[in-house]
Structures are given as C-alpha cells and as structure tokens.
C-alpha cells in the first residue's frame, strides 16, 4: 500500500493505473497495462494517500477527483 507501506496480498489491495495515454483509472482486475500503484481497502489509507499525494508521486501524475471518489465508493462497498 502506498499510504501505509504495508505488504498485503494483491487481493486485499486496490490497483490504480496510469496507462500509456496518461489516463488514470481504478483497475479492479489488476491486469490493465500501465504503471500501477496499490492502496489498501481502508478509508484511512485513502485519506493518507490523498493528503500526502502519495498516489500522485507513485504514478508521477495528478490524480483526478473522480478517481478518489471511485476509490471511496469501492472501499465503502467492501466495508458493507
């Protein structure tokens, strides 16, 4: 996880990928081409990643608000 630096099984993490066109999106399959970065299924980690811009640093690009919103939805769905 880029936020908490914990090593966890891939199935417990959510992948965010930047493809060759520079488009950033959430990759639930874990198989899309491009530079990927992982975050825990945890709202605290999402908040840390957003505030410290760790995802942006890992992907070397600005993360759109829609991606953070999508991550938030996915994490909340997993909690329920």
Description:
The chain is α+β, with helices and mostly antiparallel strands and 80 residues long. Helices cover 39% and strands 20% of the residues. It contains 3 helices and 3 strands; from the N terminus they run βββααα. It has helices at 43-52, 54-59, 65-79; strands at 13-18, 24-27, 35-40. A hairpin with a 5-residue loop joins strand 1 (13-18) and strand 2. The radius of gyration is 11 Å and the shape is globular.
- The total of beta strands comes to 3
Q: What's the total helix number?
A: 3
Taking the alpha carbons of the first and last residues, their distance comes to 21 Å
Order of helices and strands: EEEHHH
Uncertain spans: none
Assembly type of the chains comes to single chain
What's the shape?
A: globular
Which class of secondary structure composition applies to the elements? alpha+beta
Percent of residues in β-strands = 15-25%
> For the report, how would you describe the main beta sheet?
3 strands, antiparallel
Mean pLDDT across residues: 93
Q: How much helical structure, as a percent, in the residues?
A: 25-40%
Give Rg in angstroms.
Answer: 11 Å
Strand order of the largest sheet: 2-1-3
